[in-house]
Amino acid sequence: MGTLQFRVEKGRVLVPVGIPCPFGCKYCYTRSGEVGPPRVTPQEILRQFQAFALLHHAAFHTIQLGYDSDPFAYPERGIELLHGLCALGKHLNLSTKACIEGEALRGLAEVRTHLASHLVLSALVSLSCWESAPTVEPHTPTPAQRMLTIRSLKRIGVPSLVAVRPVLPHIPDAEYERLFDEAIQAGCEGFIFGPLYSDAEERFVRFVPKEALSTTPGRLVVVPWSAHAPTWTRYEDEARMQCLAALATSKGGHVFWSSALAVASLSKQETLLEKRPAGSDPDRLVGGIALYQGPGGMQAFFDARGTS
Ligand code: SF4
Q: What residue ranges line ligand 1, CB within 6 angstroms?
């Protein structure tokens, strides 16, 4: 039984699902095993996380389930973990590409009723493309099924954000435009954009045409959200992301620049405001979010003058 590692980042902690994901997205970074042991029982995950939470309770406000697999690829497991996490008195967020309906939806609605009324259960529903999904994510629920998930979750009072990640260098903007339209129609609360990661062997980017990858800026980073801190190449065309963000905003979508910030927004956690650089004006304002160009790239903060 592997020892799990947890790390508080921007007020949230990621909790693993503990079973290999059957969806097999071509960009999936979990297959290298660098982000945690592949198989751990829900009971063991909860036992180890409860021990961590006892020591670090004041340091985080949100628990985010799912970075090593999809919590609703096997819904009973996701529900069991969420029920166990409910008792810790924190906001809960799950990250998924599953089509959540029927029994799984009922289970999730029950989790929500067990969560204290001042706490929020929310979801990140991920998409990386639209028409290209059969090639890029051949075994994953279709984008249309993920829109059903957003609608279903809304019905039971669980707000969703769409994680547009990874933004893929060879996918045309038109697919992202379709994605924004569909997600806004489905009732999502906003969008997050995320980079494409690659390990040294380039296992997660082999499906991307070489010419598209070579023209995308990449830099070696220690992955900040992972307790295992792998060093990977982060491919991210900031200018393109800004254009996509502007497009989403023009259609009425809110844009966030990190999932920590987005989830904090859903649970009305405005503590990140305190981290806004004192006395400085942002470089840009998008949907109530202040953007600052920093040495490590664009950083985003809630803006007190913003609209959201
Ligand atoms: S859904 Fe997530 S964990 Fe599963 S294969 Fe796709 S990227 Fe990997």
A: 21, 23-25, 28, 30, 69-70, 97, 140
